[in-house]
Amino acid sequence: MSRDEIRIVDAGDLPDVSRLVRQCGFPDRTEQGWAWVLFANPDQGETPPGWVYLHEGRVLAFVGNFIMPYRFEGQTLRLATGHTLVTDLHGPRRHAGMKLMRHAREQPGVAAYLTLNNNKISAPLLPRIGLEPWLGRSACRWTEWITNPLRLMLGKLPGGHPAAERFERPLLLDFESTGRARAFEIVPLSAAAGADFAALTGSGRMTRAVSSDQLQYRVSDPDRTGGIGYRVCLSDGRVMALAGLSLTKPAPDRLDLVEVIDWMAADGEAGRAAQIALLHDCLRLTRDSRAAKLRLHYPDAVHPDALKAAGWHLERHCAHIPCHGDLRSPALRTWCPGPGDTDFFFSLRTPPTCRSAPARDGQISGDRPEAFRRTG
After folding, report:
1. Which of 236, 240, 317, 371 has the most other CB atoms within 10 Å of its CB?
2. Could you give the CA distance from residue 20 to residue 22 in angstroms, rounded to a whole number?
3. Is residue 351 a contact partner of residue 254, using CB atoms and an 8 Å limit?
4. For 140-175, how does the pLDDT look when each residue is reduced to its tens digit (9 = 90+)?
5. Is there a contact between 187 and 237 (Cβ–Cβ < 8 Å)?
6. 120 Cβ contact list (under 8 Å, min separation 6)
7. Do 338 and 299 meet the contact criterion of CB atoms below 8 Å apart?
8. CA distance 290 to 293
9. Which residues share a beta bridge with 229?
10. Alpha helices (H) along the chain
11. Of 338, 340, 341, 360, nearest to 349 (Cα)?
């Protein structure tokens, strides 16, 4: 009789995780990169970083489990985000991925289990295991600013076209610059080590607990040589807003762009003004890098006045709902996540010019029904 089991992932499973990721057609990591994602999270605690599904000793599926702490009504809540659900496309257990996700959803000790980065294949399956699209169609929106129209046009030219040579030049994001805007100083994360982050979490709404050490972890990916970092908006030594940015490549044949991977701000007029200044700074960095666009998922995290002040932008919508969750407290249903609540900082595709190791992308299309994409 065959023996199936689900157990906590450990370091010995990393080669199998890489095998499944490549088989499903997604960009792989080095073992050091996977160890950073799974075992170095400073907020993980004793909660499993993920699970594997085994059939007769062979790993057939994997799902990651990333913990983030939140402040809400004087309490600290721990939320779990599922990510990197991948299954063996040739394995004997067709429903191993669904069983693994159900196991993850049922984990104790967390206030919610979330997946905030689903694709069109996994999204319709998640309600079957009790994950609800509680934000509805509002979760489908994203905003983008075209910052280099010429690069967009060059990107459509054949690779051998002389005008396409500029497309091959590496892009650089200058996170280390400093600047002033009104009453604010905008600095890199390294210059905010001793700053006070309390204003970001002092409101009555649910917010992610944040510290300079936690943010530093998010930009210390061993598989990247750069292109990821934070901009911090300070007023008298207090952090009034912060933004994480990452140079990413949505697909091997797509243009590089800058993605907002985190956004937090204080409440009130000071927070509103800080967001206006910070978004202008993010657009400046993106233009200076020569990237084609700045993209923002979950734009409700940004004050509408900041979006308006940033100028003309595009509103995009995806056909599926990327946000699902098992919210174990009714009070959480009013929560609206932002880009920093997702797995963007480690799940987005890294451009070749920012990789510290050779790319090992899979060869199988992510549009195959049995191939689960990163979810989180």
Report:
1. 240
2. 5
3. no
4. 899 999 999 988 887 776 654 444 444 456 678 889
5. no
6. 318, 319, 320
7. no
8. 9
9. 245
10. 14-23, 31-39, 96-105, 149-154, 212-218, 268-289, 304-309, 344-347
11. 360
Strand partners, 70: 77, 208
**Nearest-angstrom CA–CA distance, 27 and 360:** 6
**Cβ-Cβ contacts under 8 Å for 358 (sequence gap 6 or more):** none
Domains and CATH numbers, the chain: 140-319 (3.40.630.30)
Question: What are the b/e assignments for 311-341, b being 16+ CB within 10 Å?
Answer: eebeeeebeebbbbbbbeeeebeebebbbbb
Residue holding tokens 């007029």? Answer: 269
Cβ neighbours, 10 Å, residue 202: 11
DSSP character string of 58-123: EEEEEEEEEEEEEEETTEEEEEEEEEEEEE-TTSS-TTHHHHHHHHHHT-SS-SEEEE-S--TTTG
Residue 357 gets the label, from left (phi > 0), alpha (psi -120 to 50) or beta, of: beta
The DSSP H or E segment spanning 41 is none
**pTM for the model:** 0.90
> pLDDT by residue (tens digit) across 38-71?
999 999 999 999 999 999 999 999 999 999 999 9
3-state secondary structure string across 195-224: CECHHHCCCCCCEECCCHHHHHHHCCCCCE
Q: Which residue has the higher pLDDT, 290 or 375?
A: 290
Q: Among 180, 349, 127, which residue's Cα sits nearest to residue 252? A: 349
Q: How far is CA 159 from CA 162, 163, 165, 257, 292, in A?
A: 8, 9, 8, 18, 17
Token look-up 């937090």 returns 264
Phi, psi values for residue 356, rounded to 5°: -90, -5
Contacts of 70-75 spanning 24+ positions with Cβ under 8 A: 70/111, 70/206, 70/207, 70/208, 70/209, 71/201, 71/206, 71/207, 71/208, 71/209, 72/205, 72/206, 72/207, 72/331, 72/332, 73/204, 73/331
